[in-house]
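$ ./design --mode recover --in tokens.txt
reading tokens...
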């Protein structure tokens, strides 16, 4: 069935708030637009904030293309505490004293994960095993073997080191799990760690600056949303730039 030429079409940039799921944002947008053909480009965990891209109408056809772009995240890693989900959303599995690391020792932990390497996805993820998302199995206390995935970190910066907390920025490929990154660095440092804050700031050429906030989306009229859409022609120019 062909879409009506008057149907909304384009990409809407949302600055997701904490405790909102990616599906929540889609549901709100569907309600405000009174239009169902809406998807999102890459799940953000409920605890995370930042850039969420919604594809609307014919733009859903380029959803996979947009999801394949590199990402930028701002994160906070808390040393000394390991959790089951590798972030702050689950129970503590192990707690250790944090040594008085130097900045150079922390940097060495991050530098190991620069360039191409493999990462084992966490159990609390949307990857499916026999058609069932891993997070649903994890909720039942079931752990299954996960195949390592090839991913890449192009660059990172350490923005604040105040042990046990480390604020960082990471530029990475699609399929990268920031909480697994924090967990693995913590394991290498010998004291464990988990991801205690996460914000996605960029995906491809799209940046969270100027995105519609979740609060604005909830109050937006259909016309407000249409006016905020990045059209397919604009997308084509951006990607070709």
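writing sequence...
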């Amino acid at each position: 069935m062909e879409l009506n030429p008057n149907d909304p079409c384009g990409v809407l940039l949302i600055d997701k708030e904490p405790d909102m799921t990616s599906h929540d944002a889609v549901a709100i947008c569907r309600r405000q637009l009174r239009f169902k053909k809406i998807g999102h480009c890459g799940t953000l965990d409920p605890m995370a904030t930042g850039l969420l891209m919604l594809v609307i109408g014919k733009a859903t056809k380029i959803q996979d293309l947009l999801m394949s772009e590199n990402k930028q995240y701002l994160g906070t890693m808390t040393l000394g505490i390991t959790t089951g989900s590798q972030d702050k959303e689950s129970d503590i599995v192990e707690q250790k004293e944090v040594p008085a690391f130097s900045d150079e020792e922390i940097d060495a932990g991050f530098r190991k994960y620069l360039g191409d390497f493999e990462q084992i996805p966490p159990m609390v993820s949307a990857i499916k095993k026999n058609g069932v998302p891993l997070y649903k199995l994890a909720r039942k206390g079931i752990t299954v073997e996960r195949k390592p995935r090839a991913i890449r970190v192009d660059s990172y910066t350490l923005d604040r080191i105040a042990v046990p907390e480390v604020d960082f920025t990471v530029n990475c490929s699609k399929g990268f799990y920031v909480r697994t990154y924090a967990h693995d660095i913590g394991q290498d440092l010998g004291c464990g760690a988990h991801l205690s804050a996460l914000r996605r700031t960029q995906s491809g050429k799209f940046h969270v600056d100027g995105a519609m906030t979740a609060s604005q989306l909830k109050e937006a009229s259909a016309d407000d949303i249409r006016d905020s859409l990045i059209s397919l022609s604009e997308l084509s120019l951006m990607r070709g730039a």
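exit 0
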